[in-house]
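Comment thread on ticket #2218

A.B. wrote:
> Attaching the input chain for the structure job we discussed in standup.
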Amino acid sequence: QVQLVESGGGLVQAGGSLRLSCAPSGRTFSSSPMGWFRQAPGKEREFVAAISTSGGTRHYADSVKGRFTISRDSAKNTVYLQMNSLKPEDTAVYYCARGRLRERALEADYWGQGTQVTVSS
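C.D. wrote:
> Ran it. Output below, let me know if you need it in another format.
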């Protein structure tokens, strides 16, 4: 079965930057919309960003607009999340997902295992 593997998480100071990566491992699947979600301790998992199959359409949660950029590299079959101007409230486990674009977000049908992002004050 296909699995999505996230990388690039870690500890960063407020105002700093990180770039998350997500790539398939094992059985492959057809190119499809991809996205990122996050879950902080004690909170529900929330949508962060999504990108269409071609990369021509992108959606973001209001909380990250202007700070985060989602992109994809077809040659590497990899999706990225560039996170700039990080804030302590961005601290969460970040999950890569595959799905369909719906209501300016992603309706996910497959998830990665997550990577921890911690932003210190």
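A.B. wrote:
> Thanks. Noting for the ticket: The chain has a mean pLDDT of 93.
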